[in-house]
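Course exercise 7: structure representation. Students receive a sequence record and must write out the corresponding structure in token form. The form below is the worked example handed out in class, using Probable Fe(2+)-trafficking protein (90 residues). Read each field label carefully; the graders check that inputs and outputs are placed in the correct fields and that the protein name is recorded exactly as given.

STUDENT ID: A-19
EXERCISE PROTEIN: Probable Fe(2+)-trafficking protein
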Amino acid sequence: MARTVFCQRLKKEAEGLDFQLIPGDVGKRVFDNISKEAWTEWQKKQTMFINEKKLNLMNQDDRELLQAEMVKYLFEDGEVDIEGYTPPSQ
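STUDENT ANSWER:
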């Protein structure tokens, strides 16, 4: 049976992640509170954000910036600010 969580991004019960994808406290918070659906949305945004900002994930500052954006997006109803990207209208 699939694990369900109350997804803080989608504000509903949804299928949870199969395992903790990120180490540490933030990873546990994501595992406990974010659905597969919201995580998949974040991964698309993350790719655009990394490309837009030309982030190097070997660089600690870039990883911290990406993690801050992830927390804002997943937990604070934030949108990822990607220049030149217009989200599709609902």
